[in-house]
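Dear Dr. K.,

Following up on our conversation at the group meeting, I've run the structure prediction for Bifunctional apoptosis regulator from Champsocephalus esox. I'm pasting the input sequence below exactly as I used it, so you can double-check it against your construct before we proceed with anything downstream. Let me know if the numbering doesn't match what you have in your notebook.
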Amino acid sequence: MEWDSSDDGLGGSMEALPYLSESSQSMPSTTNISEHEFSCHCCYDILVNPTTLTCGHNFCRHCLALWWESSHKNECPECREKWAGFPKINILLRDATDKLFTEVVQRRRAEIQDNPKISRSLLAFQRYGDNLGRSKPNQHKGAGFFFSGVLTALTCVAVMVLVYHWSSGVMEQQDMLISKPVSHWTPEDVVSWLELLGPWAQLYREPFQQESVNGRLLLMLGDEELLKAPYSIDNQAHRRAILAELDRVKTLGVKPPQNLWEYKVTNAGKSLFLLYALKRSPRLTLFYLYLFDYSETFLPFLHTCCPAITNIGQSVESSFLNTQMEPSWRQWGEFLVKYLLLPYQLIAEFAWDWLAVHYWTSRFIIVNAMLLSVLEGCALWRLWARASIRAMPRKMWNHLWKMLSQGFAFALLWPFFPQFVCNCLFYWALYFSPIINIDLVVQQLMHPETQAL
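The predicted structure tokens came back this morning:
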């Protein structure tokens, strides 16, 4: 009986041997794992920070970043299936490769960290993922939502005010001096024109009022008439300033614009074009002014931003005459340096000089110029960080072609738009652009400095 029991036990154990052998053969063994099973299909080396795509394929994270940067496509390098969302590191597979191939992974990590091109690609890839993840959950939160609400409210108020003025006829063109021929000027118009020359012209207001000088008499005045009674303008600089402005009046036939609003009424299309063009491409726009609007716009702009060295105690009327003179070499040098490096600073300096005339408008322009400078600096930094400096000539050519085509189309089409629409676009670009640019600057500056590895 004992033999039988022992024989049964032996038989039972013998029957179990095939099952045990089969199970032992099916168990994985670390000695049978090959490097090919944990290799990347891009670099054909051991996976480092393996990233799994939605299609199931695994790649090194730096290989995937290099592929994404070169192809600009969100698709698998092997099967070309587009991935959804932003690929994440497969933690389980990463830990397995780190334990099984420790030396190889450490060596490859060191090589990746020493390669600046790979580090920049990883940083750009991670920033892309951060922006992609931030745009979905935070699209209704944060500074962007606040500024969007402010912009929407201001837009509604502005449209209501403009519609009211347009429907009530308040926005009809007034009989201003900039549109009224000089020969039709009344004595009150002449006195108003004289007051606009500057505070120094207030000294000669009474003689013009007593003589009831109208537009026709004004056109007949010369240096001898201004020197004699009843005008008695003994100051030669004052006479020269009055005669210089009078020559401009005779040439134009109307009073030249003295501020932003008068310039806008006189040159409706040009003012709207310059407002948008200076924001999009300041260097190209200033070059356009130099070629096609030298004496009327470019010279006063240059003398305002880069004034000549003046003597102490120089009068206001002398500085007025200086704006019509050719710039010195020092002024040209200062202007070209600012033109190439800090074009928006030129606009800010020009607006600063007009604070006494346009208090709030000048401040809007100065703030907008600062914001545009920050955005331009961020754009240059992105080109440098992504090693895309070589692509700058191509980007400049594309930008030049885009601006020229848009400017040509604008020059052809803007006369067909109603004046009300042009006014809406003008005031929108003037006062609402800073609010939009604040939102853009906040988005640019809040990018986290993500580590490459």
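Two things stood out to me. The first helix runs from residue 2 to 26. Confidence is low (pLDDT under 50) at residues 1-30, 137-141, 169-175, 448-453.

Best regards,
J.T.
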